[in-house]
Amino acid sequence: MSRKLSLGLAVNEALHIAMETDPDVILMGEDVAGGGLREGDGIDEMGGVLGTTRGLVKSFPDRVLDTPISEMGIVGTAVGAAMTGMRPVVELMFIDFLGTCLDPLLNQAAKLRYMLGGKARIPLTVRTVTGAGMQAAAQHSQSLYWMTAGIPGLKTVIPSNPADAKGLLLAAIRDDNPVIFCEAKLVLGATGEVPEGDYEVPIGKANLVREGSDVSLIGFGGTVPICLKAAKQLADEGIDADVLDLRSLSPLDEEAILTTLAKTGRVVIVDESTPRSSVASDVAALCVDQGFDSLQTPVRRVTAPHSPVPFSRPLEQAYLPTAARVIEAVRSQG
Fold this sequence. Notes:
Layout: E1 2-6, H1 7-21, E2 25-29, H2 56-59, E3 64-66, H3 71-83, E4 87-94, H4 102-109, H5 112-115, E5 125-130, H6 145-149, E6 155-157, H7 162-174, E7 179-184, H8 185-188, E8 191-195, E9 207-210, E10 215-219, H9 224-236, E11 241-245, E12 248-250, H10 254-264, E13 267-270, H11 279-291, E14 300-302, H12 313-319, H13 323-332
Parallel strand pairs: 2-3, 2-4, 4-5, 5-7, 6-7, 10-11, 10-13, 13-14
Antiparallel strand pairs: 1-8, 6-12, 9-11
Helix pairs in contact: 1-7, 3-4, 9-13, 10-11
């Protein structure tokens, strides 16, 4: 059985299932239990900046922990908790705040299991919101998943739909390694069929969401709906597109990428982040390094410009990848 949920509600349901089935799972973050409310607000609890964790503190009052406004303290504490047997889930309000807590992730969580010869587990999940689309301006709208995907020892996943969000989060929480779980603003409010009960979506496995034979559109998170919209419009022109949802940025499903490339010979990668050192650049390099003989045309990337995210609504919309730009990239391949 399934029913329609938003991506945010699917995340909430996954957290509830994880905490219900494992007493070692704890949730930590700023206002996740309503600590920032003032008398007279008329709200029982905040549930984080976007309300994603609302209701959990009532079911698990001792395991939903409001924290001070100190990302370094939150993540550092969570790394220690993970080493001692807990399974902490940290809510980092925006991925833009990664810079304030990078050391415990980069130099501790990502390295400790390796440095201790596999004797330590670091079952830490960091949930965070990524990307533009809500006029949150330059300091709250970045897509920095490429940073965590580039750190050995960290896993990074980014769902494009509610069903994957629930299954990927349950898989992340139960993984014995640190996982960065990104929730893209462009799809946070998207609704879709979500299976009831407990299930996992495997980390490291891409999903072919549309089959075609003429060109491969590769996206993840908020760019998958953009790819699907472009594929529908291209079909009207007689161009049949594969659409591959990466779902996991590290580990990356290289086999799925090379398989779709071998089928179509043409690749367009759609990435909400800026182009330098991006996931789009990484995937393009893979296609050239290992799939060169299959390429019929140069790989095309559709990304944001190399610029901070503007606050202005019209400028922000121009900043983001669009189906029109994807179609233009496909046409440019001949």
